[in-house]
Write a structure and sequence with these properties.
9 helices, P-loop_NTPase, Rossmann fold, ABC transporter domain-containing protein, six-stranded mixed sheet, 244 residues, globular, alpha/beta
Length: 244
């Protein structure tokens, strides 16, 4: 779980500088990456997943540099990634989708069925495993997608806005799933939900216009732990202003 970091990372998309000199190390547990739309949250995860190449700087995932072909191959094997736009054929059952995920992540054939059973249990999908994906609620479908991203028990699991569109009860259940996933993986999750920060994250990275304006724990941001005050502090940081 060590060696996951970006250093002096600058990313340019067209004429837009999406990230500027970003340096962050990700340790065990859950790190929440927060920022307004266009702040660079998704770009950071896409860069760490090897989907976007940086203009400058370095990326290491589970100790593997993305600067070399061998490093990128090793990093992909150690990584689980769930994008905002993840979709899957709705006619697949949960169990069929998980089998496909195990194959896609190169789980050995002899271990696939036991891997699928383990994922079903870990992500509380026992009652849904023969249901088609299109029949599931948004929260249950997100659990399936996280199970797909982490079925090979990656060292690093990255989730891009997994709680978008979920109601309060579904977000609470999702936070429990993410907490369980963090027992095996370093989890990096982008979010705009302040409850996620207080209830789930061990560390917090705030981006404003592609620049890191805070990197630390929620307690370091606000020692009182008061939700309304944490929210005020985060929103102040997201505007690029200084926290009082």
């Amino acid at each position: 779980m060590t060696g996951t970091r970006v250093a002096d990372l600058t990313v340019q998309l067209g004429r837009t500088i999406a990230l500027t000199n970003v340096t962050v190390a990700f340790s065990s547990g859950v790190t929440a990456v927060v920022g307004a739309n266009g702040s660079g949250k998704s770009t950071l995860l896409r860069c760490m997943a090897g989907l976007v190449r940086p203009h400058a700087g370095s990326v290491h995932v589970a100790g593997h540099s993305l600067a070399t072909p061998d490093g990128r191959r090793a990093a992909r094997a150690a990584l689980g990634y769930l994008s905002q736009r993840t979709d899957f054929p709705g006619s697949y059952t949960v169990r069929e989708a998980l089998r496909y995920g195990a194959w896609l992540h190169r789980v050995p054939r002899a271990e696939r069925e036991s891997t699928v059973r383990d994922a079903v249990e870990r992500f509380a999908l026992t009652d849904h495993q023969v249901a088609e994906l299109r029949t599931l609620s948004g929260g249950t479908r997100q659990r399936v997608y996280i199970a797909l991203a982490s079925i090979h028990r990656p060292s690093v699991l990255m989730l891009d806005e997994p709680s978008v569109g979920l109601d309060l009860a579904q977000r609470h259940a999702l936070r429990e799933v993410i907490h369980r996933a963090s027992q095996d993986s370093t989890v990096v999750v982008t979010t705009h939900d302040i409850d996620d920060l207080v209830s789930m994250a061990d560390r917090l990275v705030v981006l404003a216009e592609g620049v890191v304006v805070f990197n630390g724990t929620v307690t370091e941001l606000d020692a009182t732990g008061d939700r309304s005050n944490v929210e005020r502090q985060v929103r102040t940081l997201m505007t690029g202003a200084q926290v009082a």
